[in-house]
Every structure is written in structure tokens, then in C-alpha cells.
Specification:
This protein is of the alpha/beta class and 385 residues long. It has 2 domains: 6-180 and 361-383, Glycogen Phosphorylase B (Rossmann fold), CATH 3.40.50.2000; 185-354, Rossmann fold. It is built from 13 helices and 15 strands. The strands form 3 sheets. The chain has an 8-stranded mixed beta sheet with strand order 3-4-2-1-5-6-7-8, sandwiched between helices. Strand 7 (152-155), helix 5 and strand 8 form a beta-alpha-beta unit. It is globular, with a radius of gyration of 21 Å. The chain starts with 5 loop residues before the first strand and ends with a helix.
Amino acid sequence: MSRRPHVLFILEFYYPHVGGVETLFHNLINALTRDGYRCTILTQRFDASLPVRETNGSAEVRRIRVPNRYLFSVFAFFAALPLVRRADLIHTTSYNAGLPAFFSGFLARKKTIITFHEAWGRLWFDLPFIGKISAWGHYLFEQLLLRLPFQRFIAVSQATARRLEEEGVAPERITVVPNGLNYAEWIGEAAPGPEQPPQPVASDESFTYTYFGRAGISKGLDLLLPAAAAFAQHYPQGRLQLIIPDVASPITHWIKTYIKEHQLEEQVQIRHSLPFSELISSLKQSKWVVIPSYSEGFCFAAAEATALGIPLVHSNQAALAEVVSGYHAPMRTFSVDGLTDALLRAAQNEWRFTPYRSYPMQDSLQQYCRIYEDILSPTVEKSSA
């Protein structure tokens, strides 16, 4: 191409909002602008202190204030209309940003691609913390999104690609681009992996193991707290550390209520909004990280913990089977008993070992650039002729 394209990103949330999706797009957009791309980001103004519009080099952020994430699908459509005309390509993500991105692009005759992080299908009806009506609503919304003719569906793992196919997306429209991790930020120049193998835990030893990330409906927290209580019967000095966002929600309310009702104040500690350096320090002091998810499209937490050399206790569901590496203890059955068993095996040093895998951000950037060029080359060259 004779020039770098101008990409409009329509995203439900963006930096400084914290999450795996936000991490992916913040790193990607920073890398793209360094490589000469122009980027515009349309997203929610989730905090009133954030500016409605700001520019950082070749990236411009436009924020709209909406009552909730669902109404973002409506308001973002109208806000996107004047922006799509200046863009060469629209890049969006599942879920709520997908509809306004597709329909604004359709009206402006601009090509749209979507990064799909997870496709749950019938899993919606097996998840906790969600009623039947809500589950049906989310399921039908996902089915609508999967049937829209995006130019490309980007799957963040082979597991997500398989789920997209199972839900009816044509294989030729799916490209796998694993999420990239900024390893320099996490481990500097060191290679991922531990300095020494993990050691068994004595029954009277004080230690911490950690869950960190969103308190979402698919994260298996309904399994984790009962399993932590059962594990404490064998290792009373062990403490589960929950590092979760300080957001009022039914799930965080349930967590606090469960801890209080089962008198787990000594066994479970909740922490919020740790500075990045403190988060890394806290993780390094943990015996292991636990990821009991019902499903994971990629799982930044697994890749980040592995980079730091921290063993993982995990559910082995969906993408975890391909992303997890190093020392790990997978659940043999997806249940409270299965998680308790995995925790006990970790304490007794009964680990599996998988050769370390890495997911450099530069690899993801190169793959996305190739996709942009593949989709846009004729259009961009014609427009710049």
C-alpha cells in the first residue's frame, strides 16, 4: 500500500478502563500509531473526569457518555456516522460495540472486521449469576452478531476459532490472531518461566495463592470460594487473595456475602485497584495463580502469570488448554471437588509441565497489519492514486 490506512476502532471500553480486551487494543493501537497508522477510537466515557475528546500523536479518542453498556450499541451508531467517512477500515470487538460498528460501516460502505474474544453459544444457559431471561437475551444477541457479514472474524485462540465455526461462521472468514503480551512490561528482557521449580507446601505453612482479573459470570468464582473453604481444612494457613476491580456488582456482593456467611475472613483477602508494580510484586509472592473459568477465549491472566514464572491451577476449559504452559495443575472435573483436588495437588507439588509458550505483542501487530493490508490494498491504493 502507498500509505498506511486510517483505522476507526469502535470499542465498548478503552484505556484507562482495565481488562483483557482493553489491554489488547491499547497495546495494538500504540503499536499501530508508532508504525505510521492513523487511529480513531470511539468508546464509552465511563468516568466523568475523562475528556470527551483527546489526541495523542496519531491516535484520537472520542468518548460518549451512556447510561450503560447496552445503550452504547445505540448511541455509538450515531456517534460513529461522521467518523466512518474519514476512515479506511473499521475494527471492532464483541459484544456491544459490534452492532454500531457493522451498521455504520454498512451505511458508509466501509469494511468492518471484528475481534471475537469468546463465543459462548449454549454456555450462556449454564453460567451462574445470570437469570434465564437475561441468558436468552445475551444468547440471541450473540447469535445476531455471529450472523452479520463482517469482512473478517478475528479469533484470539484456536479454541475461539472452533467455537465460531460451531456457531455457524464460515471457516474462510475466520483468522486466528492470539492476543499479544508486552513482555518488556512484565518481565523486562528475561525469558518467561521460573527461576526454580515450585516446592511443596507444609500443612502448617503460611502462604498465599491468587485470583486476579474481572469478577465476571464466567470466571468460576462460584466454584473458587467453596473450594477455598474446603482447601482450608487441609491447609489452614493458606490464604486466597482476590485481586478484582472495585466495582459494585451482584457478583462482588455475592463474594463478600459468601465470605461473611462462611466465616472465611481469615482465608480470603480482597484487594482492589493495585498499582501495576504492586500487582506484579503481589503475584510473585503467590504460590500459584488460580483460574477456575467456565470458558476463556485467550486469558491474559494465564499468559501474564506464566511470564512471571508462577504456576497455575486452572479449569482447562476452552483456550486455557492451549495458552497455559509451564508448571500447572488442571482440574480433572469441572466442579468444586475438582477445583479442591487441583488445589491440593498444587500444594503437594503434583504439577504437570508444558514447555513455555510466549505471545509477543509484535507478532500480533504483524498479523493485524497483514489483515488490514489484505482487506484494504485495492481500496487504499485507489483512494490515494
